[in-house]
Design brief:
single chain; 6 strands; Lipoprotein; Nuclear Transport Factor 2, Chain: A
């Protein structure tokens, strides 16, 4: 009788250990180096450009987006804003206010100036045709892939021919330099 109880206890303890190991395996995530992330980014980006050129629509962004992926900007016609979520919203609003060619030009402009220190984020920026364009990607560790974070197109705060010095002299609101004189 005692042997049977011990046998049942051993079987029970052994099965509990298996459940613990399975749960631990599910929590473990692969850790990527910065170089690995950037290599994956280059592959994803070239595929995105290829798909955008082929489909001539923004639908490829749905494939590389998550619930936090958004777009926004200034409306072409009346200056009001537009925006939405790549997963939840209809992309026709984006297609009415921005072209695929603008996004491809932004990507190909090679203004990939901001790469986060750990390689988990890449941002593109471009000022052209009286608009400021931005495209941000992130690498969520949980997903182990690159996703678009935000796509934007806004009118600059000041026109391209804005002269800050002339403005401050006209309105007498120039700020004096606080730097020490040599």
């Amino acid at each position: 009788m005692i042997l049977r109880i011990l046998l049942v206890c051993c079987v029970f303890l052994n099965s509990c250990d298996k459940f613990t190991n399975e749960n631990q395996k599910a929590v473990e995530m692969k850790t990527y180096t910065k170089e690995e992330k950037l290599k994956m980014f280059d592959i994803m980006l070239s595929q995105l450009v290829k798909d955008l050129k082929k489909k001539k629509r923004f639908s490829p962004f749905k494939e590389i987006s998550d619930e936090y992926s958004t777009f926004s900007g200034d409306d072409k016609s009346d200056g009001d804003g537009f925006g939405g979520n790549f997963q939840k919203d209809d992309l026709s609003v984006l297609e009415q206010n921005m072209t695929v060619e603008e996004v491809i030009r932004l990507i190909k402009s090679d203004h990939k100036g901001r790469i986060s220190s750990d390689g988990g984020g890449v941002s593109f920026g471009l000022v052209a045709d009286n608009f400021e364009y931005g495209l941000d990607f992130r690498f969520p560790k949980e997903q182990g892939r690159w996703v678009v974070f935000h796509l934007s197109r806004f009118r600059p705060e000041y026109p391209p021919d804005y002269d800050a010095k002339a403005h401050c002299e006209k309105w007498n609101d120039c700020v004096e330099s606080k730097s020490p004189k040599n």
